[in-house]
Design a protein that fits this description.
four-stranded antiparallel sheet
């Protein structure tokens, strides 16, 4: 579904992404792990059009999407969430969801005068859709609560809900578990699995919580220093010598050798 081919992103002399090549299979929940500074979020931003790559190519279902802006990718069904949730603070949770679909009739001045019936019908449909999403995510009790009054984990669920308002094809989740308690994290994980299995959403997840990755993701891709080190099951990734080097600074072979020499 998504193919990243030899992508580089440089900031001056710093190579944040340094020749990354990987493939995201349609219908998968792919984990993206690596130490801090590995280039994971920068790669997300390149794929999602937030940043233009220095070089390389990104395709989606065979179409070259390299450098396309986020709003264009949004309409193609590619969405991303951020480590810190971005909500409309003064609006209710339901209103936050109703804001998502684009090209609403009420956005055009002419229709506010001569298309009021159409606007009312659209709003009724959007309200019903938003309520269905809130129920799916088990936060229907927050429908009329202001978004700035709910917890961090509930805001993450609300972000996930926004992707459901437009029928996303692939969603990039950046540290969805950051600052979220274990109970809500399990709720988020269950919602991701249901969306994957029941609605064929494809997900790519950046996360440091290995239990969460283990519950959701197969395959798992590990990055370090802007490069893709390994891809496979989490068990395979954990046993990979290059991955151990990246996380611990020394691999099992070196540790074993040091033990023998001692």
């Amino acid at each position: 579904m998504i193919t990243v081919d030899d992508v580089h992103k440089h900031f001056g002399g710093f190579h944040a992404v340094d020749g990354a090549t990987l493939e995201i299979v349609e219908g998968s929940i792919t984990g993206l792990i690596g130490p801090n500074g590995a280039g994971k979020t920068t790669l997300f931003n390149v794929i999602a059009g937030v940043l233009e790559p220095t070089s390389g190519r990104v395709t989606m279902s065979g179409e070259d999407i390299t450098g396309l802006p986020p709003h264009t990718l949004f309409h193609k069904g590619l969405l991303r969430t951020f480590q810190i949730a971005h909500e409309f603070r003064s609006m209710t949770c339901r209103e936050n969801l109703m804001m998502v679909p684009g090209d609403q009739s009420g956005e055009r001045l002419w229709n506010t005068w001569f298309g009021r019936r159409r606007i009312a019908e659209e709003e009724r449909a959007l309200r019903a859709k938003a309520d269905e999403v809130l129920e799916f995510l088990t936060i229907e009790h927050l429908a009329d609560q202001r978004a700035d009054e709910v917890s961090g984990g509930q805001k993450k669920l609300l972000e996930l809900g926004r992707t459901m308002m437009v029928g996303a094809k692939i969603v990039f989740l950046d540290e969805v578990g950051a600052g979220v308690n274990r109970t809500l994290l399990n709720t988020i994980g269950d919602a991701i699995i249901r969306l994957n299995k029941e609605r064929n959403y494809t997900f790519v997840v950046i996360e440091h919580d290995m239990d969460f990755i283990d519950k959701l993701c197969d395959p798992v891709i590990c990055m370090a220093e802007g490069k893709v080190l390994a891809q496979g099951s989490l068990a395979e990734i954990k046993a990979n010598e290059q991955v151990i080097e990246a996380y611990l600074g020394t691999g099992l072979k070196n540790k074993a050798k040091a033990g023998v020499e001692a």
